[in-house]
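Sequence in, structure out.
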Amino acid sequence: MRRWEGGDPGVSNQKTPTTILMTPDGKYHSFGYAARDFYHDLDPNDSKQWLYFEKFKMKLHTTSDLTIETELEAANGKKVKAIEIFACALMFFKDHALQELSDQAGSQFENSEVRWVITVPAIWKQPAKQFMRHAAYKAGLASPDCPEQLIIALEPEAASIYCRKLRLHQMIDLSGMEAVNGYSPTETLASGITHAKEYTRRNRQSRTFLVENVIGEIWSELEQGDRYLVVDCGGGTVDLTVHEVKLPEGHLKELYKASGGPHGSIGVDYEFEKLLCKIFGEDFIEQFKIKRPAAWVDLMIAFESRKRAAAPGRTNPLNINLPFSFIDYYKKFRGHSVEHALRKSSVNFVKWSSQGMLRMNPDAMNALFKPTVDHIVQHLLNLFQKPEVSGLKFLFLVGGFAESPLLQQAIQSNLADKCRVIIPHDVGLTILKGAVLFGLDPTIIKVRRSPLTYGVGVLNRFVEGKHPTEKLLVKDGTRWCTDVFDKFITADQSVALGETVKRSYTPAKPSQMIIVINIYCSENDNVNFITDPSVKKCGTLRLDLTGTDCPSLPTRREIQTLMQFGDTEVKAMAVDITTSKCVKAGIDFLNY
């Protein structure tokens, strides 16, 4: 694909930032660098009216009660429905991709000719995945009538599919076990990273990237049953997944349910914001963000550029430009200068430069990384303690944050003795390239682990001594136990692609046309009742029987329901046993 226009000097723009700009009346204006740069150039008074959103993808994970009505807050404090923002972003990508394909093919590409793949973090739950699918339908990528045109891919899975095809010249081996990429283990980590950056820089001159659908040298080292770990370090999340190789076809089996947490590079930005609050006061920073939203964006752009320059062996200070409006507004707000605030502050590793910059010593910048990097390393060390992941051969470090030398060094020093640590070149594009391969063959991952226990509440015959007396229900002389959790699948259970869970349901009366069944979930596998503390209602199974009726309806109808949990999304289908007609079946995790 073409390089993104805009961006900052010295900062890679193979990827565009997750930023979107809406006009004061709520119409879409621009996305990515175009949105950021236009917003930056607005008059301060005008910018207060415009709706600017950034880093909004994680909202789908952090919102516990996500629905179609969930809202996002713009930089000026105004709110817009999240589905509108995500649909606008996806529509921008759709139009951009179709135009690019048409330009390169020399003829007009139609949307119907494309299979779209949207990648999401593995730790996202079903509501967030369903939300993305709804947003994609709204953006016109696919439709409910043709859902197979859109595939939801898990980011570490996509990375895994690409990594196993790596050739030796496409990666850096941090473990120092042997010479790779033309440098020996005795050379420093920094020299390897420099080498990689030069390779990446040369590669960027190419207008397109090529996904080689061939077996690479890494693959030749993998044998039947070999295991490897993919650590996907993005902006918002860090995702981990462990795969085992199944030969001869080369299919993959997930050994440990995808895990991770909100420990992406945004965490470093939050630490910088906390540092500014400590120096200038939380009240000022909050007011500045509201009153001068565009200037706050400028400040974070300046920090992003310096953040990428942080490295373990750096000795010279990092200078961060403070926007003039920050200096001016602070003087009006406090009655004294920014320089005075820094002199009086207890933060002694940040100084004022006469050129109007914050001067941070390298240790101060490294300290901003430490909480996030420590979280990632600790999560990995905990994972290595689990018996399911023993004997790992490789650790592939991917994602935008994986470019950070500080993170690379932390992982190398803590884990290089446990397995080989591999970083692909163009590390930030690994997921994109893997997603293309996944779109070509969505069946490549044959076995996954269920992240949650799913089931429904049912009545079972009451068993004395097994069931609690408060669950006893006597109906027509029969003793029943209420609220029993009938499990479809348990947390961490292996489930094969295409494997189905079969259940039969009966309408309360033959003429009933709609059956709605509540679905419950839990992170635990040893739950017995839907009223257990860890169990919560998470969705509905809806069976629409209209169109399946026959002239003589039986007194008892049986609807057989098949549910699939082995794909990236939970799917359902159903059939009326009496008429053998298909029943419209859908699982809704958003509106229940």
